[in-house]
Batch of 4 targets.
Target 1
Amino acid sequence: MALPLLCSLHTPPPSLPSSFPSSSSLHLLLKFSPPNSFKFTLPALRPYSNHHRLSLSSLTASASLSVVDSPKSSHIQNEKNLLLEVKGLITVIFESKQQILKGVNLIIYKGEVHAIMGKNGSGKSTLAKVLVGHPDYEVTRGSVVFKGENLVEMEPEERSLAGLFMSFQSPFAILGVNNIDFLNMAYNAQRRKLGLPKLGPIEV
């Protein structure tokens, strides 16, 4: 069954919550628009037939992750456009030390859309949580590079400000709080990271 394309992009929160939604999606914030705008832009999406699929089989003792490559795009797949690179990622549950992810390899370039697919319990959410720095998991081997930085050594808030975070697939409304308030908080958090002064609601 074909998956729907993700057409919306959420701004990163100032920090990640201590718990994560069980049904969630991983968003890669690729590019901010000019400082006076809350809009974000993504490269044009290619036809779905060109998308990558990361197939996750059941992560039992003998299971592994596999990647089905999409057609090569030489103008996209070069080191300059490398966005996320996961090599030999092995992860355990922090308390029990039970191994969950066993040698995951994944490369994503700017402009690509990847679909992570698998049965319930196959490790889709676990991989996402590990990438955003969930405290319940520990990386014991392998490397993760995001936008040229060592993701494993970054705190969850740093990853969020860099553009990698988790959010609800269907955001819920909070009575009494305007969307502009959330956007203002997220936008100013990004400006702080870039060393820029805070902007008030009227200025943005």
Target 2
Amino acid sequence: MNTIKTIAKNTGVLAISNIITSVLGFFLLIYLARYLGEVGYGKYSFASQ
């Protein structure tokens, strides 16, 4: 029973951390696009591919 609780807890923490990482990445892309402008963001996108 203890092992099942540990697995469930760790799975929940991992899922939440993945969601937070995705949301932060989304907002970072919005910030970068606004900060760098069209040309700068285009260069960034090209370089990161």
Target 3
Amino acid sequence: MNPERDCLGSAKVAVLTERVERLEEWRDKSSKFHNDFYDWQRGQIARDARLDEQLKNMSADIAKVLAWQESQQAKPARRWENMMDKVLWAVLAAVIAFLLGRVGL
């Protein structure tokens, strides 16, 4: 008497055993995939946070450079205004000196 040959459900047991093994293998692969995916996702979140911080720092640096550039561009205008002010006073003093010279003082 051979139990494997005489048992009517042994073929079904073999099919079910194979199916259970494949399902367990799929579960293990799926679990590994999910763990890898969530690790990758955490890495992306950390990378995005670093990039956001770098962008904030870059924006602050750009604002500083723009403020410096505006102040540097304003300097020639202030120099020109100061020079024109001095020229105006010199011309005015020359006119007054000329008039005083004509009057005889």
Target 4
Amino acid sequence: MSDTTNKPGMMPSLLDEAAAAPVDQAKRPGLIARTRASLRARFDRWWSPIDADPVRRKRWIMGGRAALGALVLGLGVGGYFVFRPVPQPDYLDDPLNDVLGYTLLTDEFNKLPVEKRLELIGQLVQRFKSMDAGDSVLMASFAAGIAGAARDQLMENGSRLAVDTWDKFAVDYAKVPEGERGDYLDKTFVDFTKMMETLGGRPRDVSDEERLAEGRRQAQRDMERIKENPERAPSSEMAGRMFQFMNEGVGQYASASQRVRGQQMMRDMVRRMRGVDIVTGKPPR
């Protein structure tokens, strides 16, 4: 057999190259591995004298357990106070800033059934009616201190209450006989404007009749503006000042079904305020 080891043109074996590679070219440990080894060495130097002394070792282990227990207890207590549900205050007797804070700045209020929220708002209305000078100053200070995330939470709470309340009225409206719908719309207008004034911190002491008269006058002014500028006629979603909660700023909290129900009742209420037939939208015969 001929010797081909030194013949020109023959490709060297990859296995031969691997076998000939020097051992000292092995890959160096990475940065993480070197750091871990350094920390381990430091820990060993610190712990070795303690580990060699049974008394010191026992003392350190017991102290570590106590510290760990205190840490767990502290985290548990702190977490409870941070994440626990905010208790509902007494709307008639508790400090006004506690009542306003719960109503406007907590998500617990949003989780209550809409009927319960309306009940609490009614109690807040009573509180406002009997408000003294000290309460007025406190409420002004409360409003002045709202900023950032608190302001966003206030907007969400007010928006959700407006949307859920309007939807409750709309659900009930669908069950009202046709001949009684006009009276139902009048009552809804009055109740809703009272609630919105309370949320805004400016409840007015006016009669239900005056509220309805104001709504009708505003509807007439809107109609006159529409006649002067037909191209600027508001859509059903923006008809009237009291319905601004249906715009993008507040209506974002409404579901698709809530929007449909709300717009239907809104259209009929606008017609009621304008004095036209709520079914046809035409002047009564």
